[in-house]
Amino acid sequence: MPLLRGIARTAAIAGTATAVSNRVSRRQAGRWAAKSEEQAPQAAPPPAAPAAPAAPVGTDTNTKLAQLRELGQLRDSGVLDDAEFELQKSRILNS
After folding, report:
1. In this structure, are 1 and 36 located in the same domain?
2. pTM for the full predicted model
3. 30: domain range?
4. N or C: less crowded end of the chain, CB within 10 Å?
5. Residue 18 exposure: Cα atoms within 13 Å on the Cβ side
6. DSSP assignment, residue 56?
7. pLDDT per position in the chain (95 positions), as tens?
8. Are 75 and 85 in contact (CB under 8 A)?
9. Statement to judge: residues 34 and 64 lie in one domain
């Protein structure tokens, strides 16, 4: 039993020492951060983010071209026959 008490006492002391050490380290880091903020010159606020660019003109045209290319690939692969291809093509072009 004396050996078990010695181990338990050592573990309790080591745990307490670790907790105290961590607390001191955090406190010092906080103090150093506050001190460096006081000493640092006031920086200018960051510049505002640029506005998002407007959609390019012809986006609708690009979308239609992409749809027509896909439609052509479907026809070439045999998924669509010529009548279905023409029907879908006219829908895309008239939309």
Report:
1. yes
2. 0.39
3. 1-40
4. N
5. 6
6. P
7. 677 778 777 877 877 878 778 788 888 888 888 887 777 665 555 565 555 455 455 567 788 888 989 989 989 988 888 899 999 999 988 88
8. yes
9. no
